[in-house]
Design brief:
single chain; 9 helices; globular; alpha/beta
């Protein structure tokens, strides 16, 4: 059964979730883009508060595909103590060269790195077969444009199944995210991804930049644990 990831944007939100922590507490700044980043100091404070009660991850921001900038950001975020560093891979003619130039940094970090690709902004280059060789520990698919469209609007079931199978055949952790809704959980769990990631479903009216609500997080947690379609609470 898939585990779940919940994204928080502040120490206050992490504190709110303290009684119902997810499998991975993800740390980001939604107002700054798909993978907007909090400061290293803020991430460190949240990681310290969590104190290993669950795993943590943090994004490095929506960065251009320039290896020197990404390498510097990964190394800086790794110092915060998170369990995973997440890096977005965006379409760019330099993407393959960028990935190759990230390899040494990824391999020398003491923190595993997760690649994030976007169903609505997929690179033209065949990057998926390169990710394991570059040193990534896992791969997530997300949505880049936060306009109310969710993952299942962009990819049909067959494409999601193929994505999960390919990632796991490479021995990598696989995650699905992208404005996932409560009613998507049962369907997505059938695809066998390791994690389902949530932010907007934890906020009033699916508005990801507003404050996280604990009651919505508990509903997601219960749906993940339930493992079958919920009765009408959706």
């Amino acid at each position: 059964m898939s585990k779940w990831l919940a994204s928080v944007q502040s120490l206050e939100e992490a504190q709110k979730l303290s009684g119902s922590l997810p499998d991975i507490l993800d740390i980001k700044k939604p107002s700054q883009g798909a993978l907007g980043a909090l400061s290293i100091a803020e991430v460190t404070e949240i990681v310290s508060f969590i104190s290993s009660r669950c795993q943590t991850s943090a994004t490095v921001g929506d960065l251009p595909m320039q290896a020197n900038r990404i390498n510097e950001a990964m190394a800086a975020m790794a110092v915060s103590g998170v369990d995973y560093v997440k890096v977005g891979l965006f379409p760019d003619q330099n993407l393959i060269n960028c990935l190759n130039a990230m390899k040494m940094t990824i391999e020398t970090l003491n923190v595993p790195v997760i690649a994030v690709l976007f169903a609505d902004n997929w690179p033209e280059q065949p990057v998926m077969p390169l990710l394991k060789a570059v040193g990534f520990h896992g791969v997530m698919v997300d949505t880049a444009v936060k306009d109310g469209q969710h993952l299942l609007n962009h990819w049909q079931d067959q494409k999601l199944v193929a994505f999960v199978e390919f990632v796991q055949q490479q021995g990598l952790i696989c995650g699905l995210a992208g404005a996932l809704r409560l009613q998507d959980i049962f369907t997505l769990q059938q695809f066998g991804a390791d994690y389902l990631g949530f932010r907007s479903a934890l906020c009033e009216a699916q508005q990801r930049t507003t404050t996280l609500k604990v009651d919505l997080a508990i509903k997601v947690q219960q749906a993940i644990q339930h493992g079958q379609p919920l009765k009408k609470a959706m």
